[in-house]
Amino acid sequence: MIKAVIFDMDGLMVDTEPLYSKAMSQVAEKRGKCFTLDIKQKVMGRLAIESLTIFKETLGLTESARELLEEREEIYGHLLSEGVTPMPGLFKLLDLLDKMEIRKAVASSSKKCWIELIMDKLRVCNQFEIIISGQDVKHGKPNPDIYLLAATKLNLNPGECLVLEDAISGVQAAKAAKMKCIAVPNQFTQGLDFPEADLIVNSLEEIDEELLNKLSLT
Ligand SMILES: [Mg+2]
Predict the structure, then answer these.
(1) DSSP 100
(2) How many angstroms does the Cα of residue 18 sit away from the middle of ligand 1?
(3) Which residues are placed with Cβ below 5 angstroms of ligand 1, an ion?
(4) How far is the CA of 57 from the centre of ligand 1 (A)?
(5) What pLDDT, on a 0 to 100 scale, did the predictor assign at position 23?
């Protein structure tokens, strides 16, 4: 029985992955390097500092991950201020979950201030009972901690939670937490295998009442 849906945010609720890519590309290009899709897929969904550590090591950069992160955050902040785009089907799905009396939470690796800014821009702040940020856990996705913390705060068993994720690391975190998980790949994760996911859909628009009821029974 699914009693709550826990949403990832970046690339799942909101189309911020192109903005992260743009910011990371600028940091790489400044050093004569290229931020490839391969690196993008490796860092997606992870805590910021972990992403920048992978980025630094893969590109062989000399600065600390912390310095690179500060540079990335400044560019990302500017890009965010220009506006954010919700992923197709988000608002309809939120309405459906209300109708079905399924609770809603967010568990994002992003920083609290970015989450608040984005949720505010999308005007969905009061739609979610619980919001967990990357700053609330020590280990980021694919570690299950962020999803387990969400379940604890919802006072639910992991088996009663359904996670929606766009990234491999996020799907792995949800399954390590023993939750149900639907993968919703975006432009950067399309074509990747999500072997752990219970289901893969093309967009949030495909998640309807019938599908949720079916998943509740498995
Ligand atoms: Mg994501």
Answers:
(1) T
(2) 12
(3) 8, 10-12, 45, 166-167
(4) 22
(5) 97
51 alpha carbon to ligand 1 midpoint, in Å? 13
Q: How confident is the model at residue 158 (pLDDT cuts 50, 70, 90)?
A: very high
10 is catalytic: yes
Quote the ligand 1 centre to 101 CA distance (angstroms).
Answer: 25
Cβ–Cβ under 8 Å, residues 16 and 166: no
Domain made up of 17-81: CATH architecture: Orthogonal Bundle (1.10)
What digits encode the pLDDT tens for the residues 78-95? Answer: 999 999 999 999 999 999
CATH class of the region 4-14+86-217? alpha beta
Residue 198 has pLDDT above 80, yes or no: yes
